[in-house]
Design a protein that fits this description.
This protein has 135 residues and is an alpha+beta fold. The chain has 4 helices and 6 strands.
Amino acid sequence: MERISALHQDPLTLEHLMPPPLRLEWEHREPIAEGSLARFVIRLGPFRVRWTARHQAVSPFGFTDEQVEGPFQRWVHRHSFQACGPRCTRIVEEIEARWPRHPIRWILATGMWLGLPFLFAYRARRIREIAENRS
């Protein structure tokens, strides 16, 4: 579990968890710690989505990132790590989201929300690959 926690708390890991054709461009990053900020742009072709998140409740068992700036009116993403065996960690991700009222931002947020199953399936595979390569 410690390895998975450390992997998630490394801000550079996020770059490896973005499925093509999405690209992540950092504007500001700090090591994940209580109150730390991550500011980045997600690119899909000519479209750019600016996102700023603040990290909270950081521990070896997980952390929360809350959108400070981005497409949603509210976005809270909880990452929890649970040991399920000597070499097994269950990663639980919970998202609380509230849609914006602005029609263009609403469309953007809805498109992003609908892409989450694909995003998390890709991330699960990549986390497994990265963890196996680092062991």
